[in-house]
Amino acid sequence: MGEIEDALAAYRRAVYTLQSIRQEISLGPGSDPATFRKSVGSAYLELVDLLLQRAASMRERARYEPYLEEARKAVESLKVAELRDYFRDDCVDAARRETPLDLVSQTAVVIYPILLPDRTELLVSLPKDRTTLESLPDAEKLYELKRFTVPVGADALTQEVRKFREKLERRSTLEYLPHAQRLYDWLIRPLEPDLASLTIDTLVFVPDGPLRTIPLAALHDGRQFLIGRYALATTPGLDLTDPRPLPRESARVLAAGLTEAVQGFPPLPFVAAEFQEIGHRYGGRHRQLLDRDFLVSRTEKELREGQFTVVHLASHAQFGHNIQDTFILTFDDKLAMDRLARFVGLFRFREDPLELLTRYRPRAIGLDLIRDLPVPPGRERLEAVLAGNRRIIAVMKFGNGVEMGIPPPPALKGTDRVGFGDVMVDPGGIVRRGLLFLDDGKTTAYAFALRLALVYLQAEGIVPQPDGADPRLLRLGRTTLRPFAPNDGGYVGADAGGYQFLLDFKEAPGSFPAFPLAALLAGQVDPKGIEGRIVLLGVVAESVKDYFYTPYSRGLQAGQRISGIALHAHIISQLLRSGLESAAPVATAGEWAEGLWILLWSVIGGAMGLWVQPAWRVSLRSAGVLLALGLAAYGAFRGGWWIPSVPAALAWGGSTLVVTAYTANRERVWVKILKERIAAAFREVAVHVPWIGWRFEQKTRHKG
């Protein structure tokens, strides 16, 4: 027993590792499912095998049932892993939820056929009988798991399934019956005593391997088909579906199918009777697209505009190894699975835009919405989407000594898919700095924009690293992001807490494509504009008060602001350019160089005030100098340098004003002194040569 426990521990670690690195090992589109089963799925199956062996060695249900439950969950994880690899899409994880078997109807059983090399195991969820249920406490499970061992290995069962399918396709003979009966004996006969005692009316199969390729309804007990005794359902995984019954009175059905032969495929005459039955059951609550009405464009229109809860398709289909070769036949085209998923999303996710967005395969999704308090309805679904899709990053508020922080959604608490959205705002409401990290003394939090940028860069093979020269600095690709210092640029003694950096805002206003949520839900957004990109989901409204000014805002009017979601986009863009294009952040010259720069402009201003006269020329040249300084600062900023233009302008203007005032005052003093000296000189001349004045007076009188 000790050896089995050691082996179990090893396989549990292996499966856990496979789950954590699933994106890196995904075989991707075009890979053979059998290859996936051998290379990755074998670890899951061997874990299941060991769990079932361990359960078989125990007699008490309280001891063996946890092993059976773990085996069932491992099987569900394998189903999700296979689908994820086939579609190469994490939306499979988003769709997954831990489905309690208690949600399954008390008249239904769930059957997991597990094909192992030396045997086939049937792991079956059976509802407890009514007598037992009445005596159970409320917290007790409403079902029990049982295992049934069939001494038929995977190879033998696979061969029998292939023979059954081959014979079944020959409709004119009954040669398939012996194979149908043999499969019944292996898969259903062991369960008959329990099915009879519990009055079961529905069998739910989670088929594995070759069993997915046959209609289990055609299994035969020697007297009748399985469908004649039970209602049947199949699902790729119970965790990928909602087993609760859909109320028929509220269901709205879109039924689409073909009876005629089209595009080289044979007719399906029984579809007409199938649609008649649907019409009988649902009456005016269903819409039919049959034959020439079953067009791709018509189907899309119905799904976009209708309010359907069920889509029923009855047509030919092809499911190949490559998802591009997998389709459902319509009258005018072949409807590929990815396109069908988009169409179905038009109605299925009408109230779940986040899940619809994941279907478009963005590289990362930023949820710029504070969702810390659970609000029904839809809370469970939102938590499942958040927890199941590693592309989604949610925002939270870190807070400070003045404002309280706001935690992330509960489903993401404690994960690496949360980032703070706090912003450094300068006086006047202008944002010039971005934040990468904040520290409260206990934990270090990542910024919302940084989390999203890292998800994108990781797919490009770029991960954050410490700088080689100074390990305290962050390095993305070949670019080191040096933290902001209190006196950088035009700042003097600014708050440099956390890990800040200067923003360049190189993207022009409106350069980030934006679309309203209504357009997404209406299917009016081109998936190619989303696939492989970072998508931010947020609110842009005056009531939210999430607007900021940038260094390029030409005034403080409302039209010069950008929204918070656009600000995050600018920060993400700058981080991506740093990692992908080696674009360095905005640089400053250092305190000594900036001091010399300001001193230089002070000297220039003083020289202008000293040598340029009169005052109107000073004013004219001052306007030209200020314009030149502004253009130089703008050009330098666009080139990645922040020169302190405002302090330089103030130093220039101050020195010009002081020197001009000094010069003007000095001139006034000189003029006054000159006038006094001239007047004194004239008085002295008048005393020494009085006759000059007398003659001048006489001449004046004579003329008068």
TrEMBL record:
Origin: domain of life = Bacteria
Q: Which InterPro entries match?
A: CHASE2, CHAT_dom
Pfam families recorded: CHASE2, CHAT
Q: Which UniProt keywords apply?
A: Membrane, Transmembrane, Transmembrane helix
Q: Where does the CHASE2 domain lie?
A: 316-608
Membrane-crossing residues?
595-612, 624-643, 649-665
Q: What is this protein called?
A: CHASE2 domain-containing protein
Which SMART domains has this protein been placed in? CHASE2
